[in-house]
Amino acid sequence: KAEVAARVDFSGVGIDLATAAPSPAAIGAAVDRVREDDRYRAAAARLRSAIAASAPIDAIANALKRCCGA
Prior knowledge:
Layout: H1 2-11, H2 24-36, H3 38-53, H4 56-68
């Protein structure tokens, strides 16, 4: 999906090929670029840490409290 690809690209963890039907060559080139460029690995590590540090249940509970006025 275009929205997911845009988020992946924005976060720096991957490449948005900007097409619904990329060619095999474009996919291969993107894979090679991601595997060879340490910036993608570093961005993935930052995202992994942010996810690990998050508290999704607490966030949901707080959102429900705000929504319901509790």
